[in-house]
From TrEMBL:
Annotated source species: Calothrix parasitica NIES-267
Protein name (database record): RXYLT1 C-terminal domain-containing protein
InterPro entries referenced in this protein's UniProt entry, alphabetically: RXYLT1_C
Name of one Pfam family that matches: RXYLT1_C
Lineage, broadest ranks: Bacteria, Bacillati, Cyanobacteriota, Cyanophyceae, Nostocales
Domain RXYLT1 C-terminal: 136-230
Organism superkingdom: Bacteria
Amino acid sequence: MTVSKYNQKFAVNLPLQYLQAIRLTHALMESDYTVSIPEEHQNKFSLLKNIFNLEYQVGIEEVAILDSVKFNHTNPSSQIGCLKRTLIFPHASFDYCRQLWSDKRNIQICFAGLVTEKRNKTLVKWFKNNFSNSRFKLPTQQRFVIRLVNKLFRQLSLPILPSTYKTELNGVVFWSSNRGRVFPVKAWDEEYFRLLANSQFVLCPSGDYIWTYRFFESIMCGAIPIIEEYCPAYEGFRYFTMNDSISSLKWSEEDINYNFQLCFERLTVSFEELNQEIGKVLSI
């Protein structure tokens, strides 16, 4: 009896603590093959399974490992065999974010994410340059009690607590959050994406490297990024910089539709290409 090639199962050798690996694995789950994940990483996909109706197998015993699926976080780049993109996101994430777009965006500018010491300085400087408010202090999720609790949790090898703090000043929403570092919400933060989809512009200070996921996530949600620094991954997109004054910011449907389409082309792999490449790799 001949078994269809699409009944084949495979697993990937990726560090699943990284969001880049989660998105790449999710994209692989859109193929006609069955993806297996290690049992200890089930929590990283629990929200994605509920939201996107993912199907996968738990357990990687006697399952082929696709070593040609890999990524580089520095540049960035993601790769499935010979298919290479800046990042590889699932089609479902674009479809989901597109339906979140608000007809009336109530927030002009927002920032949402972890407020590191470097980001704090960058954002405070940007705010003071635009509003001349010397008393402005960016809210941080690292309040004293939370720092102590999370320190204790780390010592006990327990997951840290997700925490957020939101404030609005001069029409700018600052949402200080560590949720992007805590599973399972790290895999898909619904509140974060809804905030972006209700904003015209999103402040995108650099991350651990110059590039940041926030740039692409903003575009997926129909907002225009305001970047701190240029990097090659941003080439061709329409955005503003943090040196531009607020009065020069112009939001348009033409720009967000252009960015969305370009982002989709740059960050996704067609289902046909995906199936073909996986088939090639499995047959090696």
